[in-house]
Amino acid sequence: MNDPLDSLSDPELARLAVRDERAFEVLVTRHAPAVHRLAALNVGPGAADEVVQDVFVAVHRGLRGFRGDAQFSTWLHRITLNACARALGRHRPSVPLEDAPEPASAQNLTRAAEVTQLREQLSAALQTLPPEQREAVTLREVSGLEYAEIAALTGAELGTVKSRINRGRAALRAWLTRAGVTPMTDHPHPNDLPDPALDALFERARTLTPEDSGAAGRFLTGHRARQEAARQQRARTWRAGWVSAALASAAVVAGLTVLRPAPALPSSAAYDAYQSAWGEGW
Q1: What average pLDDT score do residues 151-164 get?
Q2: 5: domain CATH number?
């Protein structure tokens, strides 16, 4: 049976997801594979799950402030790029050219392991670019955004975006050539990797892998556990406050009336009923 939430647009889901966890899960399931793929190219496959977690934790916290002034995808891309930048700042690898992953043939990358290997190679190359070039190239070549969309997302002029992409691609071709990536063509190029071969590498790297497809499930498993732990902590805090208030009231009238036994501690079920009635804004 189809979930009716699946037919909703991103802005509609975002509005519902402020209070509806199921709507949030649909958003994650819809977008996590692409976020994981973009992260794998920016920071390397090994750190992509960390970025996915950072991204959707930030999305979950920021949904109340999302007004729809920008497209949801634009907002999500900005959060993803920021998370990638933080991940690179935490543990930016320095990959000597001789230690770069063994390149796979651009014409023989059909298995998931080979795509992962290619992403490691491209990630190492992309991390040699200035941040603004790396962002522009990955938004164009991995996410498939138009130049105007990249300009709106990054705040750069259209001509600047095109220039960054051209310079970034030229630097990537030179780096990959030095790393030993040889284009599989009938007319080998004597200098840098030609544009069609670089296009073929990116096309292969965009192939969704099982790791991409499983990113939503891995995030949501941890997210549900964190949400339940937070709910239990709120329940404990609420119950403790209820008891404190009851004892304080009893103390005030202790000299005037016979002190009655404190009422029974509210149960978790009572807290759940309270939360259902009043929400989490107390």
Answers
A1: 95
A2: 1.10.1740.10
Q: Hey, how many other C-beta atoms are within 10 angstroms of the C-beta on 37?
A: 26
d(CA 125, CA 175): 6
Same domain? 80 vs 61 = yes
pLDDT at residue 96 in the model: 44
Statement to judge: residues 185 and 273 lie in one domain: no
Give the three-state DSSP class for 2: coil
Last residue of a domain, one of 92, 109, 136: 92
Name 125's Cβ contacts closer than 8 Å, sequence gap at least 6.
100, 172, 175, 176, 179
Which of 75, 92, 109 terminates a domain? The answer is 92
Cβ-count burial 111-136 (b if 16+ within 10 Å, e if not): eeebbbbbbbbbbbbbbbbeeebbbb
Distance CA 146, CA 9 (A): 21
Residues 104 and 207 in one domain: yes
When comparing pLDDT for 215 and 230, which is higher? 215
